[in-house]
Amino acid sequence: MEPQAPGVQYSRWEEVSVGAGPSPEEASCWERLSQELCSGRLGATLRMLGGLALFWVIFILGYITGYFVHKCK
Asked: Per UniProt, what is one Pfam family of this protein (predicted)?
């Protein structure tokens, strides 16, 4: 890093904002929707349902694949 002129101080944190994020007035519709769907009780429920759906999709694909792999000729 190059030396700086005397009396000039550099702060690498000057553009870092401290806080929990944008206020509800500043947040866009998508940000509010994302915040609502990804946190709290609703978010946990959606993650659980998504996990169950993924499990059944993988299970059914495995069943179909196994059927054709082990099918008698």
From this structure: DUF4731
